[in-house]
Recover the amino acids of this structure.
């Protein structure tokens, strides 16, 4: 009986678990290496919602590029008033990543701050605050949006 009890106790003490099917890279983003490369938008979610509110233009044209030397490029797909898709490209001087926080700087005045984590192999960014010429602004939790991206080859 003792021989049967030992493996059960070992599993209970040391956390035997089955594979949950998630990516081994899931969790908080800790370094630029975790996100280097190209990402394509696959979802946009209002706070607390599971409804994807990304438009077809968002999904077709919105991309991120985390490059070397902390250069960052954001392309945003938008729907024009005539119903066609257009792209706005913003280049940023720097980005920094520290324990799940991504700070993106366009210049010394304009900065955006996001929480960042990997969930099922997807990069999830939730903007929590920003600065502009009028100062620092927190985004109320109820107004925060989460943008979800997947890796792709350019």
């Amino acid at each position: 009986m003792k021989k049967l009890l030992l493996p059960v106790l070992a599993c209970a003490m040391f956390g035997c678990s089955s594979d949950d099917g998630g990516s081994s890279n899931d969790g908080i983003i800790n370094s630029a290496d975790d996100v280097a490369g190209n990402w394509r938008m696959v979802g946009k979610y209002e706070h607390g919602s599971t409804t994807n509110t990304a438009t077809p233009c968002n999904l077709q044209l919105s991309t991120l590029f985390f490059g070397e030397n902390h250069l960052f490029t954001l392309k945003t797909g938008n729907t024009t008033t005539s119903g066609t898709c257009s792209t706005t490209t913003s280049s940023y001087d720097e980005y920094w990543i520290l324990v799940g926080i991504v700070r993106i700087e366009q210049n010394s005045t304009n900065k955006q701050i996001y929480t960042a984590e990997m969930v099922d192999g997807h990069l999830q960014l939730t903007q929590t605050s920003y600065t502009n010429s009028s100062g620092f602004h927190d985004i109320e939790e109820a107004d925060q949006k989460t943008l979800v991206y997947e890796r792709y080859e350019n």
User: Anything to note?
Assistant: The helical segments are 2-14, 56-61.
